[in-house]
Predict the structure.
Amino acid sequence: MRTLERITLMTATAVYAGYLIQQALKARAERIYRLAAGESPFERTHPKPRRMRFS
């Protein structure tokens, strides 16, 4: 039974590590896409307020 617990723990650890790596890659790719589109990192954290239009 001890080996089954180790295998389960190793599997869960590997799945969680894979999830964290996937999220880090997704965040990095999004940042690169935004920079390629011409948006500065400052604009991402400090968006410009929208102006209201009165018709």
